[in-house]
Write a structure and sequence with these properties.
This protein has about 260 residues and is an alpha/beta fold. It is about 30% helix and about 10% strand. The protein is globular and about 40 Å long. About 45% of the residues are buried. The structure holds zinc ion.
């Protein structure tokens, strides 16, 4: 089922719709597991976490992404660092996005669990990354879905920072994305830079300068531009198309 495209709504009313309240994604618990040797360079494919098939065609943007946007999931800061928990999280977010929001698939491109496991999100995200040939259009940040890779960081980081291993996995993932898409580390943002939202939480948001610095260090010298060379050309119309297609993405500003 495709999201409705018949919506007619003004930018002003969209902005007015940006209320702030919490979302609870998870109602289930996962048995603790001893298997939590995280491999931060590995991205677990959708099949591994038993993702559902998208309900409609996932669209592609053939330009490279311009930036990365960091989110938190606004879920519990679980002490369960297992791979099973990460997979359960992937399914829970996808179910929430598809069943509660009516989206065609999970909205984000990648998820980093508290146990430092990295999951592929929306269908096609990993293949696009590996080929460095564009991106699938996500649903994670109003106005940025055709331009930005969305990364969900498991937890609620309003007061507490992510665990060290999770932060390290985030650094590695961002570095891989920047390397593949030839993005400068300065192109890493938080959701709140674009929408009226608390996401990714004040504590994680405060870490973004450090994240950019750490990613920049991983990228090394010489290969990357100091500024993104991705042009703004031919994205304006797509942004408006995106606005109508992914109206439910407004839900994300409520976090
Ligand atoms: Zn967010």
């Amino acid at each position: 089922m495709q999201p409705t495209r018949s919506l007619s709504i003004s930018r002003r009313s969209l902005l007015r719709a940006q209320a702030v309240f919490g979302i609870t994604l998870l109602g289930s618990t996962v048995a603790p597991s001893s298997a939590h040797a995280a491999n931060s360079t590995r991205i677990h494919q959708r099949a591994a976490w038993q993702a559902r098939s998208p309900k409609g065609a996932v669209r592609r943007s053939y330009g490279r992404p311009k930036r990365l946007i960091i989110h938190h999931t606004a879920t519990a800061n679980t002490a369960d660092m297992s791979l099973a928990r990460a997979y359960s999280l992937g399914r829970a977010i996808q179910n929430h996005h598809m069943d509660s929001f009516g989206w065609i698939d999970t909205g984000q491109h990648f998820t980093v669990s508290r146990g430092a496991y990295v999951l592929e999100g929306r269908a096609g995200s990993l293949a696009s990354l590996e080929s460095a040939s564009g991106m699938v259009i996500g649903a994670h940040c109003y106005g940025q879905n055709t331009l930005a890779i969305g990364i969900e960081t498991e937890g609620t980081y309003t007061h507490n920072a992510p665990p060290a291993a999770q932060y390290e996995a985030l650094v590695e993932l961002c570095a891989r994305l920047c390397r593949q898409y030839r993005l400068a580390a300065s192109e890493i943002y938080g959701h709140r830079d674009f929408n009226a939202t608390l996401c990714p939480g004040a504590a994680l948001y405060a870490l973004l300068p450090q994240l950019r610095s750490d990613v920049d260090s991983r990228l090394g010298d010489g290969e990357l531009p100091t500024e993104s060379r991705i042009a703004d050309a031919d994205v304006t119309e797509e942004v408006w198309e995106d606005l109508e297609t992914f109206m439910p993405a407004l839900e994300f500003v409520r976090r």
